[in-house]
Amino acid sequence: MSLAERLQSLFVALAALTGLALGLLLPIGPTAGHAVLPALIAMLTAVFVQMDAAHVRQVRHAAPLVATSLALNFLLTPALAWALGTGLLGTEPDLRIGLLLLLVTPCTDWYLVFTALARGHTGIAAALLPINLALQLALLPAYVLLLGGRAAMVDAATLTESVLLVLVLPLTAAMALRWAAARFRGPAWRRRHITDPAGHLVLPLLYAAVLAMFAWQARTVVDHATDLLALLPPLAIFFTALPLTAVGLSRLLRLPADQKVTLTMTTTARNSPTALAVAVAAFPDRPLIAVALVMGPLLELPVLALIAQLVRVRPPRAKTPAPH
Fold it and tell me: Which residues are listed as membrane-spanning (predicted)?
């Protein structure tokens, strides 16, 4: 993991604070607002262009892990998100929707970094990425409409259009770019000139989107600063319960150590950039939802770093030779 990736939480916080200061000191709010969605769509395109669907074949060799991962991500997590939102944020509908959007979107990028850092099975982790993404595309509107209830206050058509805009459009563009580059210039050229540079663009685009969003909604953040603190308890519960559940099920299923790491990371990490893009597109007149989503990575990334150390696969100790 590079230094930039290790300091991601710090850089997200700095981008948010810089945007907040600029939005309060300068009249740039409306201009900054126009930059948020394009930056997020460009960032997601850069994420998706690195995705190799050929990895999906590897899931055949880890059926228990894959089945457990899908059950945790798409059955248990939505139920837990609904329970946490209803129980702890019942009087804050925008925070409830922000929490729901964050928790029902499994990560499709940086969980791979933490899986590798903890010496997990990165092949299976990469194979789960397109599966998680496809299920998000299909289920996200249903989760928001069914679990969000009256707090969602958005029609199915608007939500579906937003998902198509921020997920399907960049995914289609990324896959077309991957195919064209490989078809006309070759896989090596694609890696050198497309996928590797795209990897270096993701974090700067995320920071730019966060800075622009906070500059755009600086007054909203200031007016609701104490409300945002209400997100800390449900997030703390989630980022404690999911790793413990994944580790417990790994032991019950007797998964190999590297698969235990993979299950823990893919069910704990969340896809805050995608959730943020959907929030900006689907709820443009409810900025607190998008602002709430920035709380996720500020807590999530340090937690993932800690979990990576706790579940890390340790190499076997060398045996001490017996004395003669």
Answer: 33-51, 63-85, 97-117, 124-144, 156-177, 198-216, 228-249, 289-311
